[in-house]
Amino acid sequence: MRGIAADPAAPERLKAFLEWCGEEAGGPDALLVRFEHADETADRNRRRYEQSAALSAFGGTVAIVLAILQLAFHHPLVVAWEEGRRWPAIALLAVEVLAVAFTFFSVARSLVLYRQEGWLLWRYKAERLRLLFYRLLTSPDFWTGREPAGGDFLQWIGREVSQIAVLTRVELQALARSAPVPQQPEPAACEGVDAAALEALVNFYRSRRLTAQMAYFQARAQEDPLSWDNPRLLPFFFFSSVGAVFVHFGFEIASFASKNPQSGAIYRSISIFFLLCAAVLPAVWAGIKTWRSAHEFTRNAARAAASLGVLKRYSERLGREKEPARVFATLDLCETFLDAEQREWLRLMLEADWY
Fold first, then answer.
1. Which tens digit of pLDDT belongs to each residue from 114-147?
2. Who is most buried in 40, 248, 257, 348, counting CB within 10 A?
């Protein structure tokens, strides 16, 4: 919505609406100003949350792997300690303690400062303000002159803007479980709208609202998933771990059966290596899964692809419709769908909350 007031294609009635929503007339409490503030805050908090999620998952995985290494090499470390070579045990323990402390610090920092609900709340506020802007813009009452009553934009817009401003984290759960209902305008309410103004509204809406939203969905749907962002990796890690246990068992038997002490020591070292792999692989996958759950990459891409198809059909319908009642009905369906899509995204991300 940035730069929207400068669009030369905006119809005259929209320009009056933008003048009141913009900073010049409404000041810091104007709708567009509030949207930009919420949008910037949401982006900033999202980056902090995702950074914290990645650091926590990485630190926790490193701590677990180091603990496994300490357990696997417990006997050699004890022998080295008794012989006076204490630095290997001390170094491993120090790194392990640092990894654990780093993980706890990162998680505590997120719980206090950058909880997932924090950036979700600001993102939802921004999207509600965007929805409110286009809801009011596509209202037939606005284009027939029935609203705002007496030209009082503050009374018409202010109440809903204030309701969005006081949204809390607690309300997110309830909002995610609700669904919007289309409010199809009565044909009589659409009478009297100038044909040229209606065409300008449709052109503006398709170019600024639908085109931008479809571009967003297109980018999300076509994002190449990361090589580790694949649900098939779960059975791969599991059966690789099982295979490592089987190989470990084979080399362990070979070390006992070997009559050559040197060969037995080599077999035993290989056996320990595969035993480590069997223990480390699940820990690595758990770290990756924890990080992925904070983003829900795959499910968000599938959701974007489905939403893109719906908006394309609505855009095509708007390009064909000329009857005011049908145009406003389609605009209402577009906004209802985008409202429902935003709530579905919110529900998905809340379910993905991992701390």
1. 565 677 888 899 999 999 989 988 999 888 888 7
2. 248
3-class SS letters over the chain: CCCHHHCCCCCHHHHHHHHHHCHHHHHHHCHHHHHHHHHHHHHHHHHHHHHHHHHHHHHHHHHHHHHHHHHHCHHHHHHHHHCCCCHHHHHHHHHHHHHHHHHHHHHHHHHHCCCHHHHHHHHHHHHHHHHHHHHHHCCHHHHHCCCCHHHCHHHHHHHHHHHHHCCCHHHHHHHHCCCCCCCCCCHHHHCCCCHHHHHHHHHHHHHHHHHHHHHHHHHHHCCCCCCCCCCCHHHHHHHHHHHHHHHHHHHHHHHHHCCCHHHHHHHHHHHHHHHHHHHHHHHHHHHHHHHHHCCCHHHHHHHHHHHHHHHHHHHHHHHHCCCHHHHHHHHHHHHHHHHHHHHHHHHHHHHCCCC
84 exposure class (CB count in 10 Å sphere: 0-12, 13-18, 19+) = exposed
The CA distance from 233 to 135, in Å, is 44
Structure tokens at 146: 């029935």
Q: Which range among 2-6, 175-179, 248-252, 301-305 shows the weakest confidence by mean pLDDT? A: 2-6
Distances (CA, A) of 318 to 12, 94, 162, 195: 20, 65, 32, 14
Rounded-to-integer distance, Cα 296 and Cα 222, Å? 15
CA separation for the pair 187, 332 (Å, rounded): 13
Predicted confidence (pLDDT) per residue in 27-71, tens digit:
556 788 888 889 998 888 888 887 877 788 888 888 888 878 777
Distance, in Å, from the CA atom of 292 to the CA atom of 230, rounded to the nearest integer, reads 10
Name residue, tokens 């529900």.
347
C-alpha 170: how far from its chain's center?
Answer: 19
